[in-house]
Amino acid sequence: MTDRVLVAYTSKTAATDEIAEIIGTELAGCGLRVTVLPVAAAESLHGFGAVILGDAAARDAHRFVKRHRVYLKHTPIWLFHRGTPPVPNDVTRMVRRLGASGPISFGGEAPDWDRAQAWARYLADQLAVLHRGFVSN
């Protein structure tokens, strides 16, 4: 299994891409090879051992999941949501369909940056447990 992680995001506001960058930076700091991309730019998931997707409520995220559903069924996936709880019903259904973890919410207009960093470190530990090829500090 590869130690490559894709952090794919869609954002109508700057906060979701900033959260994705924070998550990517933290994962890289834990020894993972990370690619952070808008979902529209993620043409292939080949070579990625895990996917982290945010903002899962957006239409582009649903297109991403539909386009890559076969690959995602066999790949660990975590979802994050920039908004405040409760999580939208369509995201809850996406979690069930994919067997995904999450979604975790990072607040509305003032996202919780510290929580995003802590969650990324948690993900690095989870990936280390799931895949012997992953390395975590």
From TrEMBL:
InterPro entries: Flavoprotein-like_sf. This is Flavodoxin domain-containing protein. It comes from Lentzea flaviverrucosa.
